Amino acid sequence: MKTNKIRVGVNGYGVIGKRVADAVRVQPDMELAGVSDIISDYRIKVAVELDIPIYASLPEKESEMKDAGLPVAGVLENLVGNVDVMVDCTPKGIAAKNLARYKSAGVKAIVQGGEGHSVTEHSFVAQANYSTAIGRDATRVVSCNSTLELMRDLGRPRGDMWEVALWEDVLTVNGAECYFTYQVDNQSIVIPENIDAIRALSGVVRDGQESIQMTNEALGIKRYFIDQMKKSS
Predict the structure, then answer these.
(1) What percent of the chain has pLDDT over 90?
(2) Residue 232 or 184, more confident
(3) How far is residue 215's CA from residue 212's CA, in Å, rounded to a whole number?
(4) pLDDT in tens, 66-120
(5) CATH architecture designation of domain 6-143+190-219
(6) Integer Cα distance of 111 and 198 in angstroms
(7) How far apart, in whole angstroms, are the C-alpha atoms of residue 70 and residue 137?
């Protein structure tokens, strides 16, 4: 049945790809058409358990994946022909080579920070340049560093922290100098950016702040991890 949702495919079901796929599935305006990879082990079998259609990124891997008992729906070209936006989460260098096939199919594409800026001539940060990505054929989501345990305690999927956390407990002011520690979960921080980049390239949501709000609400992104305790007067 035809819907008005943005149909998204993910190429590469690894550390970033599986997280992008999960995030797409909870967005109210997106539909995950499938994921593509070349592996036949437990990682792609998780996608099968989640009822996500799987595809072979390379034609020569299709029979190997089928022999492993995987319900392969087709090859990458089949997935590309059924989406509006492809999010390429393959290892460094591969995504750059895949861009031509996405473009020839008339499909928008997002690559990750492992690729250089020159690959797409646009590096996406939702709060800074959402508007400049609207209608583009492709963009690159920039990369980041490091991580933590509080997220697991809060019940986050895989213990992911999508926010950049500034820890109040270690915030110190000494005269005119301020000392603080902030933390970035490199495998998680890029996920909201990928979601906003999907909307920007598709042009469905043209206001960056509107997209950010939609993403935050769907993923449960918070301003504070723990509610501020009311101070007694």
Answers:
(1) 65
(2) 184
(3) 5
(4) 999 999 999 999 999 999 999 999 999 999 999 999 999 999 999 998 899 999 9
(5) 3-Layer(aba) Sandwich (3.40)
(6) 11
(7) 32
Domain residue limits, the chain: 6-143+190-219
Beta bridge partners of 173: 178
| Contacts for 108 with CB less than 8 Å, ≥ 6 apart | 84, 85, 86, 102, 136, 137, 138, 201, 202
N residues, the chain: 233
- The overall longest dimension of the chain from CA atoms, in Å, is 70
How far apart are the C-alpha atoms of 7 and 24, rounded to whole Å?
A: 9
Q: Which of 214, 162, 151 is nearest to 192 (CA)?
A: 162
Q: Which of 73, 105, 134, 144 is catalytic?
A: 144
Q: Which pair of structure tokens corresponds to residue 102? A: 């996405």
pLDDT attached to residue 230: 46
| Residues facing residue 34 across a β-bridge | 9
Going by C-alpha positions, the residue among 126, 209, 130, 207 that lies closest to residue 162 is: 126
Residue matched to tokens 């509610």: 227
- The amino acid that residue 6 corresponds to is I
User: What pTM, to 2 d.p., does this model score?
Assistant: 0.77
Known catalytic residue: 144?
yes
**Predicted confidence (pLDDT) per residue in 116-148, tens digit:** 999 999 999 888 899 999 999 999 998 753 337
Q: How far apart are CA 199 and CA 97, in angstroms?
A: 23
Q: Which two tokens stand for residue 165?
A: 């956390």
